[in-house]
Amino acid sequence: MRAAISIGCGLLLAALWAVPPMVANAAGDAAGSALLAEQCAGCHNLTGPAPDTVQAVRARKGPDLFYAGDKYRAEWLTEWLQKPTRIRPGGAFYGDHIVPSQATDKWDQIDTASLPDHPALSAPDARAVSAALMANTPYAERIATVTVEPVSLPIFMGDMLFDKFKGCIACHQSGKDYGGFSGPELYTAADRLNPRFIYSYMQNPQAWDPKIWMPNMNLAAADLNKLVRYLQMIAEEE
Ligand code: HEC
Ligand code: HEC
Questions:
Q1: Does an H or E element contain 21, and which?
Q2: Which of 20, 89, 183, 232 could make a disulfide contact with 171, Cβ separation 3.0–4.6 Å?
């Protein structure tokens, strides 16, 4: 940072030098926090705690962001805020947007016209908001205790585990147009999420979101490591 600056304009350097770095960061965070309060708080829980009734989960207008720093990859967050794409095929609560499957269809249908586009931010605003969000780490200790062990896994074994043995496919897409709609698409999960969060969430979804409808499957460490690896493989494939 300092090296890069010193190549640049001397006046700017002098100006920056006068401001201690801590204060500069705090100012950046303050801008991001202000944007969050103005433009995001209406749909997202920024302070916690997570909803503690099923009704409150269903009424949620967007995913909880109060533990964003424990959950996301910062680079992804900054990019996505500028060009948001759909992550939950059925929106915040799929039940509001689903057309039940006909006897002949494999999956339910989504009424995509009923799903609004997500607001987009300019690059500087996205950077400020992303920095402010990434500072929210109430579960840093939980994340720090997670160790993801690297494993090698043939893709067909991953498919079997995800589709057949554990039934994740009922709620999650493992490829475009392949899988259920009641959970977030997972072929982008490794791009979006901290691997330790992925592991921890699969291990105990209710520790993150007490009333969420993803079941706790009491997955063993070996399966958790395989599933983290599998999500990386399908993200590389897409
Ligand atoms: C009108 C309601 C609404 C507003 C306003 C809104 N969001 Fe969202 N947001 C949503 C919904 C709904 C989703 C889920 C979209 C999906 O999964 O496809 C979402 C998803 C997200 C996600 C991805 C979450 C995840 O874990 O998958 C982030 C990050 C996010 N919003 C940040 C923001 C920020 C920052 C702002 C303010 C600049 C904002 N949102 C404003 C409704 C909103
Ligand atoms: C009954 C439906 C259901 C099943 C079965 C299910 N999940 Fe989920 N899963 C969900 C829901 C709902 C969420 C969180 C929704 C949200 O945050 O909006 C979720 C979240 C996740 C997340 C975090 C994703 C993100 O973008 O925040 C991961 C990773 C995940 N599930 C993996 C799995 C795996 C692996 C399996 C199989 C072992 C599985 N899930 C089985 C419904 C399910």
A1: helix 21-39
A2: 183
Determine the distance separating the centroid of ligand 2 and the alpha carbon of 22, expressed in angstroms.
38
Torsion of CA 153, 156, 158, 163, to 10 degrees: -170
Instruction: Enumerate domains of the chain plus CATH numbers.
Output: 22-84+119-138 (1.10.760), 139-238 (1.10.760.10)
Q: Which residues of the chain have pLDDT under 70?
A: 1-28, 102-105, 107
Please choose, from the candidates 194, 216, 212, 192, the residue with its C-alpha nearest in 3D space to the C-alpha of residue 203. 216
From 44, 186, 214, mutation site for ligand 1 pocket: most ligand atoms within 8 A of C-beta: 44
Pocket of ligand 2 (CB under 6 A): 63, 88, 166-168, 170-172, 182-184, 186, 189, 198, 201-202, 212-215, 217, 227
pTM: 0.89
User: How many Å apart are CA 116 and CA 34, to the nearest integer?
Assistant: 24
Q: What's the pLDDT score for residue 179?
A: 94
Nearest CA owner, ligand 1 atom 1: 43
Q: What's the CA gap between 23 and 56, in Å, rounded?
A: 38
| Cα 183 to ligand 2 centroid, rounded to whole Å | 5
Segment 124-171, tens digit of pLDDT: 999 999 999 999 999 999 999 999 999 999 999 999 999 999 999 999
CA torsion 125→127→130→135, rounded to 10°? Answer: -110
